[in-house]
Design brief:
about 220 residues, mainly beta, Trefoil (Acidic Fibroblast Growth Factor, subunit A), four-stranded antiparallel β-sheet, 14 strands
Length: about 220
């Protein structure tokens, strides 16, 4: 797990959580990387999206975003009106043997889930929070980082290895580079079932918006 002081600083200083509210699409252009490299790192790239509390458009694409001087990128939600292929996302890809949804979250066959950021590999990671309740940490991407702790099903569902049954993805309100946004986080509810301030339960899935991708689900869809 990639869990060190720089991640703690993201939570304590650079990312300020707000109280829960309905998510609205940003009115500014995406300020992270959403380009499709001319020479992609994989021929099976895809986008990532998460559910957000918006009854009109319940999904938001995830954009890898540099926050201040931190070298770790945050996964910021960005929503566009229109078809699924219109989502702004940073291209992602897997490395390893895909389980295609056949293994339990505690089982084998985990893969790397990487981002293609302008031709540079960034590995996605979460901190190991164990059985702690009522906590949320951002999902981050770091250059040159490799870890096989992810599952990407043939249906497009994305999951992370569990070290406690209470762990889950959270969509959290945050301030990134002075802008009010929503970021993908990893955490758990408190013992009474409430989520950390500004956070709500979410899920992550694949969106087929990378032209020419050979990712099986996207080939079938296309």
């Amino acid at each position: 797990m990639l869990f060190h002081l720089s991640l703690a600083c993201v939570l304590s200083t650079a990312v300020a959580m707000a109280y829960p509210q309905a998510y609205s699409p940003p009115t500014y252009p995406p300020f992270g990387n959403t380009s499709h490299p001319q020479s992609p790192l994989s021929n099976a790239e895809f986008g990532l999206r998460m559910r957000v509390p918006n009854p009109i458009n319940p999904y938001a694409g995830l954009v890898a975003t540099k926050n201040g001087t931190s070298q770790q990128l945050l996964m910021v939600a960005h929503t566009l009106s229109g078809p699924d292929t219109a989502y702004d996302t940073t291209p992602a890809y897997t490395v390893g043997t895909e389980s295609l949804g056949t293994q339990k979250l505690y089982g084998p066959n985990f893969v790397e889930l990487n981002l293609d950021v302008n031709g540079t590999q960034y590995g996605l990671s979460t901190p190991d929070i164990g059985g702690i309740h009522g906590i949320a940490y951002p999902v981050t991407a770091s250059a040159g980082y490799h870890v096989k702790e992810w599952l990407v099903a043939s249906t497009g569902e994305v999951n992370h290895k569990l070290t406690a049954a209470s762990q889950q993805f959270l969509a959290c309100n945050a301030t990134v580079n002075g802008k009010h946004v929503m970021i993908l986080s990893w955490g758990s509810s408190s013992l009474n079932g409430t989520y950390p301030s500004g956070c709500t339960s979410t899920s992550v899935s694949v969106t087929c918006n990378v032209p020419g991708s050979r990712w099986p689900m996207c080939v079938t869809k296309g």
